[in-house]
Amino acid sequence: MENEILISDELISNKIYFIRNQKVMLDIDLAILYGIETRVLKQAVKRNFSRFPADFMFELSKIEYDSLRSQFVILKNGRGQHQKYLPSAFTEHGVLMLSSVLKSDKAIQTNIQIMRIFTKVRQMLLDNTEIKIDILQIQKKLENHDKNIELVFSYLDELSDKKENEQPRTKIGYKK
Fold first, then answer.
1. Prediction pTM value
2. pLDDT per residue over 71-115, tens digit each?
3. Which residues on adjacent β-strands are paired with residue 51?
4. Can you name the residues that pair with 17 across neighbouring β-strands?
5. Cα–Cα distances in Å, from 44 out to 29, 82, 97, 101, 123?
6. Residue 48: other Cβ atoms inside 10 A
7. 17 touches 24 (CB < 8 A)
8. 26-30, 48-52, 109-113, 147-151: which range is least confident on average?
């Protein structure tokens, strides 16, 4: 652990994309984080393809890749070369499986850090969900308060209408 690689959490977080309703990291970014070439990572995956089912890794379609390129200007693979093949996207489980395929210390340490970031992202999503639920409950209460306030105003209107339409009372008592 004394040789722990220091990669900022923000750098890793910025490399997590939401594609096909999943949080994923691209092989291009992972290779840079691991300090290896993308082709080396792809070869390691190809040699151990049975470890990467569709829910661990998938290849981006041309449309998905073009969309990412336009959104994030991912034109090069980090080494100044254009991508020859479409990138692969690794889910959280796929990234975890990479640690068993890539044996270097840097890859293992980087994977540990990436797993921690995925956990933080998941927790943030859960926290956001709880906040949304709280907001919905507050909105329901406010709607009920609005209805109650409207009811009070309607009662006040009825009372004021009664007072305006009230017949003058005959006075009782001594006359002067």
1. 0.58
2. 665 544 444 445 677 899 999 888 888 877 887 777 777 777 888
3. none
4. 24
5. 15, 20, 11, 6, 31
6. 14
7. yes
8. 109-113
Q: Are 78 and 28 in contact (CB under 8 A)?
A: yes
40 pLDDT exceeds 50?
yes
Asked if 113 contacts 5 with a C-beta cutoff of 8 angstroms, the reply is yes
Instruction: Return the H-helix or E-strand segment holding 130.
Output: helix 105-164
Phi, psi of 17 (to 5 degrees): -110, 160
DSSP secondary structure letter of residue 113: H
Region at 41 (left for phi over 0; alpha for psi -120 to 50; beta for the rest): alpha
Fold of 9-125: Mlu1-box Binding Protein; DNA-binding Domain (3.10.260)
